[in-house]
Amino acid sequence: MKASRLGSALLAASLVSLSSAQSGSLTIESWRNDDLTIWQETLIPAFNEQYPDIAVTFTPSAPAEYNAALNAKLEAGSAGDLITCRPFDLSLDLFNDGHLESLNDLPGMENFSDVAKVAWSTDDGSETFCVPMASVIHGFIYNADIFNELGLEEPETYEDFLALLQTIREGGAYEPLVMGTADQWEGATMGYQNIGPNYWQGEAGRQALIDGTEGYNTDGFVAAFEALAAWQPYLLNGYEATAYPDAQAFFTLGGGAIYPAGSWDISVFRSPTQGAVFELGAFPPPPPAGQETCYISDHTDIGMGLNAASENKEAARVFLEWMTTPEFAELYANALPGFFPLSDAPVELEDPLAQEFLSWREDCESTIRSSYQILSRGEPNNENQLWNVSARLLNGEISAQEAGDIVQEGLEAWYEPQQGD
Asked: Do residues 249 and 382 share a domain?
């Protein structure tokens, strides 16, 4: 009888605990104020189908204000339960300052590779503090109508790519390559970091920069600058004064054949009011001739962490565990074409252009941008220097070797592993 009462008491306690974990109110902090309706109309309702007693509110800030606003809330103890995580150092600082909890023991984290988790892990990889949500992939989007008109095919090698650009230039009807350098970051982000991994061999080269065994002024990193410099004759007329949104608009109006892209551009080109009215295609950055392995920049972009000061951690962990599931991955990827799930679950995307980008993971090895982990912590900032020299290189102001020397000198100024003996 006593054993029966004890068993009943334990069962009751278990049910109470389960009930408390699956009830409560959660608030999500985020800088993505453009996807408010996606959370309100798609993601949160899907979660509530399984957990109807956990109320979730998505409260974004303006992107430029998010970091300062979040830090102020965290210091005041008024931040939400769930914190949308930017990649690398900003989130690492939050973890080191005690604002984010370790998620090593969260069920479902085994669904993510080390590369997927690297943006939200400590330098030694021992602690992961955000659930990886999505990455963006680099490549090239093209006007399929122009390709059909001119009888063009997707390039298989970088040499094919340059020959393709030359053919379009000689035709004279369209600009071959639609990208400007006025904002600087495009040359690095959609140029150097797009094609570069094929020259520095993806993760192997990136890790060699961190280890100090390779530099920006040697081997594959200079070769990548040389490959980027070859774009100069094929960029649209007046590219030096062309800003990012102007290049997008020029492409959607049909003025150019190929657009060096981040997958986030898909949503712009699919816009019902300002998007492209022609058929779109895409191809990955082609490797140099004779190289069997291709590499893509599959860059970790956004994650979700648990506020260490949350008063409803059990419910928050339930939500985070749901975010590790194939259901969330597919919902998020289809709601935001061009933002790709980082879990190992297979996902079918409704947008054919987004599915094309995602398919490159099957054939190519993934890496992330070379400057984002560790290397942009000092001054001069590695990422900002890459912006500057990539723009100057494309503008014809410096050579590929000079670009590599400038960035390498900047890195050696503060980063000890690159300083030699």
From this structure: yes
